[in-house]
Each structure stands twice: as C-alpha cells, then as structure tokens.
Design brief:
Number of helices of chain A: 22
CATH architecture of the largest domain in chain A: 3-Layer(aba) Sandwich
Strand content of chain A: 15-25%
Distance between the termini of chain A: 79 Å
Largest interface: A-B, 102 and 102 residues
Number of domains of chain A: 3
CATH topology of the largest domain in chain A: Rossmann fold
Shape of chain A: globular
Oligomer: homodimer
Amino acid sequence: MTNGAQALMKTLVDAGIEVCFTNPGTSEMHFVAALDGEPKMRAVLAMFEGVATGAADGYARMADKPAATLLHLGCGLGNGLANLHNARKGKVPVVNIVGDHATYHVKYDAQLQSDIESVARNVSPGFVRTSKSTGELCQDAADAVTAARGLPGQVATLILPADVSWSEGGVPCKTPAQSPAPVADDTTVKATADAIRNGRKTAFLLGGRALREPGLIAAARIAAHNGVTLFAETFPTRIERGAGLPPVERIAYLAELATLQLSEYDNLILVDAKAPVSFFAYPDKDSYLVPDTCKVHTLATPEQDSVASLNLLADVLGARNATPVVQPAACPGRPRGKLTAEKVCKAVGHLLPENAIIVDEAITSGLMLNALTAGAPKHDLLTLTGGAIGQGLPNAVGAAVACPDRPVIALIGDGTAMYTIQALWTMARETLNITSIIFNNASYSILNVELERVGAEEAGDKAKSQLDISGPVVDFARLAQGMGVHAVRVTTAEEMAKALEYALNNPGPHLIEAVVPESLNGVKRKVLPWLLRTLPSLPRPVSKALKKKIAP
Amino acid sequence: MTNGAQALMKTLVDAGIEVCFTNPGTSEMHFVAALDGEPKMRAVLAMFEGVATGAADGYARMADKPAATLLHLGCGLGNGLANLHNARKGKVPVVNIVGDHATYHVKYDAQLQSDIESVARNVSPGFVRTSKSTGELCQDAADAVTAARGLPGQVATLILPADVSWSEGGVPCKTPAQSPAPVADDTTVKATADAIRNGRKTAFLLGGRALREPGLIAAARIAAHNGVTLFAETFPTRIERGAGLPPVERIAYLAELATLQLSEYDNLILVDAKAPVSFFAYPDKDSYLVPDTCKVHTLATPEQDSVASLNLLADVLGARNATPVVQPAACPGRPRGKLTAEKVCKAVGHLLPENAIIVDEAITSGLMLNALTAGAPKHDLLTLTGGAIGQGLPNAVGAAVACPDRPVIALIGDGTAMYTIQALWTMARETLNITSIIFNNASYSILNVELERVGAEEAGDKAKSQLDISGPVVDFARLAQGMGVHAVRVTTAEEMAKALEYALNNPGPHLIEAVVPESLNGVKRKVLPWLLRTLPSLPRPVSKALKKKIAP
C-alpha cells in the first residue's frame, strides 16, 4: 500500500525534484516518514522557515530547477514569506508543500488553524491549490511542478492536508516534460532590428535568463555590431560575469542615478526585463525612470526564450558572427590598512577563485563590489531580487547545495544578516562550502540615506535610534560559533585578506565578521555628493554626466 | 503643518497607545521621524519582525491595552505573521501599522510590491484597512484601535501608504472610549444555574480574561458552593496562579488525556472559552474532545464580560459569599544532581519571587512546570496561544516593557527559541529584566512523539534526522553573548539554581542555557506509558482513571 505522502514523494522525484528544504511540524510527519522510501530526495533541515524558502530560491537559481520546501501550516508559510517574495520577483521556480490540518479537522478551528491560501496568494498568485484527496494529490503535485518551472519560473504552493497525506491510495503520477518556451515572433524581431538600425542611441535592458553567458554573448555581438549599450536589471536573479564574459552595467538602485544612466537613450529594448521603476516612491520624484524621450520596445517577455530571441535578432542584424567585447582579466591588489567596506570588496576581488558563486546582500557596504570584481575570474552573482532583506544567507545555503563543487561567498550587511541568521546552523549541519562575510557597521545604514531621501530631515534622536543597531553591537563571530560555524572577526584589511584566503583554502562553512565604518558616514546630509563616491563603479559617460550635474 | 505620520502618532498616543514595537524600512521613515514629536510614544526596535509582533502580543497581555507594531510592507508583515497568529488566537489586541508604497507607486509593481491586505487577513480578519488619504488616516487609526481593543481583543491592521504618511493635512482624531462589554443575559444565567443544580457532575471551562484573579475567585466561589470543577483552556493567554489563588486544572495538550479529563462530566460550561478540540488531527482519533454524554453550555462568549457574568451566576446560585478554595503556599525543594528538565522547573518553583511573570514555551521540557510552581508565590503565566512556536522570547520582551517592576522568566525549548532568537538583542538594548531559560535537549522532542501519534512509526533514519537538532548542538549561551545578553550554560541542578538565583538578584537580561536530556527519552515507542510520567502534574481522579486504563 502507498499512502499519499509516499506517492507524492515519488511524483516529486520523478519530476526531478531532488531536494526539499524543510521545517516540519506534526501535520507534515507522514511526508517526513516518506523520506526514507526515496533515496533520491535529500532533505535539508532549517531551524526557521525563512531559511528553507530562501535556500529553495538560491538552489533553483543555480540548479535551474525547483527544490521543494516543506512548511508547517499558515504560520510556517508566513515565516517563509519574505524569501518566497524574493523568489517570485526573481522569477525563480519553487514548489512549496505546506502541510495543513486534516480536512475534517478544519471546522474545529484548532489553535493552528488559519487561512493558508490567502497567505500563499501573496507569493504564488499563479498556483495555490489545496489537495482534496489522496487520489488527486499526485496530479496536483505534477501541476504544481509544471506551474513552477515553466517560463517565467514561479512559486507554486501545494497545500497538503494531513489526512490526504496519510491515507492509503496514493498513485504516483508523471509530470509532463517542460514544453519549450516560445521565441519572439518575426514581426517583433524585425521591429526591434529597425529600432536599433534607426535609433540614435539604443540600449538593451537584460534580465532573467538573458544574463547568463549565452544571452550575454548574443547581446554583446549585437552591441559590438550595432553600437548598442548593455544594461542589466538592478537586482539580477543570477548574472554570469567576470573575465572573458561581456560586461553589462546594472541599472542603479538610486532613482537619481538610474535616470541619468538612461538619459542618453532614445530606444530601450527589454529582454526578459521590465522598464525600470524606482524601488520606493519619494516625494516629488518620478516612479517611472525611463525618460519621456526614450521609446521602450520588448524583444522577449519573461514567458519567452530570451536567448533564442536575441540570437534571432543577431541574425536579422547580421551580427551573429560579430566579436563580442569581453571583460579583460584584472584583479585589484591586496588591500592594506584599516578595514573599510570597500577594502572587504577589494579582498574579494583580489582572491576570488574561478567558478565562485557570490551572493550579494551587503546593501550600502557592497557599493564597490561590482567594480572590484568586474575583472575577476568568471563567477555567478545572486542578488536581492525582491528587496525583502534576509535573503543572502539562505540563498547561499541553496546555492551551495545545488553546486557542491563551487565555493560560495555571501556578502551580507549586519542588519540584513539578523533576519535569517539561523541559516548558519544549516551551513554547519550540511558542511556547506560557504564563506559568509558580515559587514558589521552597527547600523541600518541604508535607512539613514532613505530617511533623507524621503524628505524626513527633521528626524531627531529617537528617530535616528531606530536606524542604529550599535547598542549592543552584535558579535557575529560569536553567533556563528554558537551555531557550529568557524568564525573570525577582522578589523584590518590584512586580517580580512588572510581570513578569506584561509576560508577559500579550507572548504566548509566559515564566517568572517568584518568590522567596518558606515560606507556613507559623514555624507548623509546630501545624497548627490554621496553619489560621487559611487562613480568609480560606473561607466565613464554616466560618471561624466553626473559630475557635471553635481559640480558646485 | 502636520503631516499624516505626525497626526497618526498623536491619535495613537491619545488613544492610550504608548509603545510601538518597530522594524521599519524606507516606506515607514516619516512615521519614524514623527517619533520625536511625541514624548509619550516609546519605540522599541527589533531586529526581526516576529520579535516586534510577539512583543506587542506579550505587552498587551500584561498591559491590557494594545501596543502598535511598525512593519515594512507585505514582507515585514509576513515575517511577523506567526506571532500575530498567536495574538489572534489569544484574543489579544494589537494595532499593526504596516507601511506601504505611495499610492501612486503601486501600479509600477516595484520590487517590494505585494498584496499586503491578503496577508493581513490571515491574522486580522476583523480589521484590515488601507488608508486612502492623509485626511482620512486618523479616523482609520481610531477605528483600528477601537476594533483591536474591544472584546474579544483582536489584531487590527492599518496599512499606511508612504504618501498618506508624508503629505500635509493630518488632523489628529479622538478614539471613543471603549464601551463596556455586555454581561450574560438573565435567561442564560438561569439556564446555567439550572444545569449546575441539576447536573450530576459539572465543570467550568474558563478562558480569556476569566483566568485573572477576579474571574477565578468568582468561579471558585461557585465551585465551593456547588461542587463544580474548574478547568482552564489548554493554552491560556494569561492566567493568574500560585499561592492564595484558586487552582484550576488546564485541559491537557494530548487529546488522549483531555478526553479522560472530561470523561466524568455531564455538563461543561464555557466561560470565554471554546469547547476543547484536538490540537492536531490524528488518524482514527476524534477531533472534538467533549464526550457525547456531556452537554456544553455557554455562560459568556468572548464578546461578553466573563467576570460580571460569573458574579451574576454566583448571585443566582447563592454562592456569592462562599469561601473559595485557594492554593496553599508550597514550594519544591532546591534541586540537586544531574540536570533534567524537571529539575529546571523545580528550580523555578523553588526560587520564584512574588509577582513574577512566567512565559512558558518549553514544550516537552516544561511538562512539570505547572505542578512545580502550583504553590509558588502569585504570578502570571503566559502560554503559546496559537501554537506557532517562536512566541516565548518576544512575549517576554513585551511583558517586561509593560511591567518594568516585575521579573520575567521565559522558559523556552531549544527548537522554538531559534525562530525568534533575535529577541535577545532587544532585551539587551532595552535592559529588560528577563531571565530566559533555554532547555537544550538538541531535539524537536515533541515531534518524536507526534511522529508516533500520527501513526508514522515506520520512520527511518532520514525521517528521524529531521527531528534531531544535535548536529551541531546550538550553543545558546554564545548566541546570547553575541547579542549582548549575560549568559551561562549549566549542566547540574546546583548550577541551575545558582544561576537563577543570580539572575533574579541582578536585574537586567540573563540567559541560562540548561543542558538537559529529552524529557521523553526512551519512552517514544508508546505514547500511553509516556503519559504516566505526566501523572504527578495531574489531579488525582484523572491519574487514577489513566493508571487504570494503561495498567498492563
């Protein structure tokens, strides 16, 4: 006899889902019991649901297929919501298995009863289903997998009542092979080619899977042949970069900068990306960042095969054999002296090994990361796609599970690290090859900037204390040690480089607590002068335009 | 000029809301800036939203009025959802202020855009409102406070778009005084009195505010006069207990036990409580725990004044002047030898000072807590009302903020502590007089029981590893020290008692990591024999019935 959970497990494994990030409770015990019957399913336990969901996100970004999560009712899903939001915004496939009370138990409104579907809709608007019977369960699961891994990838939530899980009569079910994504049609390709040929200045805005090597090469051929600029979305799900790959400039987080970046163009061609909007709204500032004078075209939507569409466009433009401009190898020197956030990034750029995965949730402390790793050996970069902080450490867990042979380096702000600090425990439990670098500046530094940007300059001491996490200063090395992760605290650039070298030479989880001053210290009163500091990481024309604009 | 945030702040303070538990982001910056204009509003920062919401819950349980939370969009609310669920189930008033994007920004679907109202409905089905304009904001806030603090208390969620917050034209608004709750009508009181007089055996099931001293005294007078038994709901929001107060037996968590507790009664009278149902569903077991032979009556619903209703009933029964049975003072001796969870509870019972607040989220390790503190000096006990673990440490934060003159002792399981471990940082930041005792048994021990109870005995090593958090064992003392909380790790009963003594004599946050074996170690294969171990904490008749039932 096969119960629902056992059949579900088989269905998932048959569909290629081989990892489940778990934080189970009583209602999931039959699913847990079924794990032993499926050697191909790896269960990775987290001590908080936000770790499980963020790990599933990081896994899928690197494995290009979904993992499952196992969550305990509406509250477990709630705890995992923020990182599922990041997955949704990053178009990342995730299959949530959310346990629920037995169907007949719901009416009693027991302690943990809540409206799971409502919560799930926030992150998986495209697929939320409560399985009604053991007989239907596996088809429901196959539908969830199909929904999750189609283009664009999405979060699919399957709610699994305990009795549907434990009842006999489960019948495993095949998940149909993924149908190939459509390519941009000829009319669109031709119109795009015309825009490129006729435009004064044209830029691509690349997002989603167009930021992997094949998409970048295709776009870079067109760029070389037709003088098109390459932009990437602000927070890529996964971007392949480094020496030998075509460089691409990310649209800036700050609306003020993004507007400048786009100001010269009369055509913006979207490839699996949306037209840039401001991250937040600000009084008297525009939300939509594309200038009126710039026409927006769409070559490929997130539903389409962006790489094939770019190649088709290259053919039409005669650019298929053009030589793309690629990033020359160039590493910064070894940093010296008093530690700053910039020197931490410099150490990473100096030491980055071939084929690393960088997870960037360093917020203000990571301002210089892009510039300082631009010519480093080829690597993947994962970023904060949905803006819900607490993504970095869990994402690193998932990336390391997906790619056990690649070193993972997670750069995380101190404030943001605390949301899902429990990820360190899973890193230790699974002996994952992750080096977490925590920038400890004892501040929600970005909020000091934002406080001013929203025009709330009248802020007094009480307000400022809400952005200050220096009383007490968190000792991240101790937190890591408390969860079984080797950790050191560094205060000089020399120590930083040495610690990173050690970590990279000795696989297994490490944490480096980098004690740094705020990157924006002393320049909070005015945003534009502060932007000056970011100029070295920007391409020449933008720097020039910006310098002109803010010159006294 | 007054902007929306400033007027909102004034409206909240005028309504008696004096504490806001915060974890703000950019969209809340004007609310943060407005803090300095209101000296009466205390802002308590948390490094994770679940801490803020759990603290608001604990605060309101002790202050009998709501605190506000300040949360950042749908993801911040998601992170706070589990503890808001606990507040909802505990009928605890909370006013959520959830920042949102500016109204005009929503259509751009920026990174942090999500459907906040859907998420909010899970925990505040009675009041979710997105404020539409600065002019309407303060009336919206007054409505939210009114909804939250009525009977039953509830979670009210006010969604605050950034432009509604920052625009000028805010007009503070008075919140009407709370209208008195209705009392049970004469017909109901008479019918209840008749049931008591005519029944063979009758029990009260007391919940909500009926578990405070006035309600307990009223019920105990009737118990003494009419031979009625007093039960309390399984997980009270707040129960006053100890020497000099009427003792009341809580309905057991385990359905098997609860059924036995209720088996002798032919009348069960609900007072601000619902008829007992099983926490979870189990194969072939009933969800509804009241025997068919027992008739359920309702004296007072959660919407009604339960104490006044009990007093009215006492009048009708002529019990108003009866002498209630109260708990005699009796403390256990000082524990000695190798540490066990029971000895930790014994140390608490031995040393508990007058007027303490105990927060119990010790799960299996706390089995003996009730018995060992029954005759301790008067204290309040707060429990896990909604079953969403991670409530204890944040609840302690809120209780300590509400009652700065009372010592707070939080007893927390290791698994559960990790969900909201960031609460320790807020304890240090605010120098709260809390002693957190973490039972470190390196296991999700309750799930070992549940795995068997749901009939999943075939569980293999992979399944069992999902309940095992021993690799690595978390070092809670280190975690606490990393967040600025004084901490010790104890392995003997003598060390435990000494550490608790020290903590109680030296106000300020402390953490005691009690290394204990699993309470249920070696007795997992059968649930009923395990129950035997819980017998000393049960009243005589239940023990007898149970012993008879499980005798070999």
